[in-house]
Amino acid sequence: MASLTRKRSTPTRTSASSANNDSVLFTIGRMNPPTPGHKKLIQTMIVEALRKTDSVVFVNLTSTVGSNTEGKINPLQCKDKKRIVQKMIEQIKIELVGSEYDPADIEALQVIVNCADDKDIKHPSRPNQIPDLLIGMFNKLSKIGSYNQKMTNGLVNFRLYLGEKDYGKFDWLKNTYPFYDKTSKTQYDLESIKVSRPPGDMSATYLRNLTIRDDDKFLEAMKALAEEQGKDLTTKDIKGLKNLDRQSAFIQEMMKVGLDEDEASKLFDTIQSEIERYQREALLVQKATKTTTTRKKKGGKRSNGHKRRTKKHVKKSKGRT
Prior knowledge:
Elements: E1 12-14, E2 23-29, H1 36-50, E3 56-61, E4 66-67, E5 73-74, H2 78-96, H3 103-108, E6 111-115, H4 130-141, H5 145-152, E7 155-163, E8 187-195, H6 204-210, H7 215-228, H8 235-242, H9 246-255, H10 261-320
Parallel strand pairs: 1-8, 2-3, 2-7, 3-6, 7-8
Antiparallel strand pairs: 4-5
Helix pairs in contact: 1-2, 6-7, 9-10
């Protein structure tokens, strides 16, 4: 692939309507699981791409499973998230038929979903890294004729679409290859665009919480989520959560992103069992660590006591001599 670069500048933050033509629209996220909020974000990118003469959309998914650095459990494998997102894209395109956009343009629009652990992206020594996702995205762009020409010597506009929570989180990309490379004449314009979550839509954390089997733990998790969002749960809120049919609520949300009822029900069971499995594994590690620490402490005391007895024995022996 030819060397790639961009002007050394901080990504400009802007609104979706101000993006230029001939753009690469992309997002980066966990989407564990994908939600109606993620659907709105992807739909925003698709609609913006349809307004342009030559655009492509990328959905880049991280592939961490188990606990992440924030202590949150990621229950789904990336291949499962990718499958859901692809169904989501199909549904978005179907919903756009009959709108102001030409059905042929809707069908032809390229929306590429990448997983960090895809064979053509994963770095053997450090998988699941965002820079690898970006390089994978650039590799695929270089195979698209219209972009290949621009990427060898020209200007390519990149638009990074993010939800409110992640907005500004990836400003460090300006210092990441291939966005910044002094050896090339190609320039890249990078803008971060914030997409608000539709009112009433549940977050991925909320959906994961719905799968918690224990009622008390579910309420604890929902209180923690409310606190994280700067909210307080009222008595009415808590009563509503206690009476909530959590599985039905989960299924209803996932049907909004393109799953049928049976698929959504199976996904609920999968997330529930995976979260419980990771929690059991974490508990076993915690117990093992605690046992090891205790043994080390006890062993240290015995060792010190042994040394004291040895010194005392030596003194007595000297006295006899």
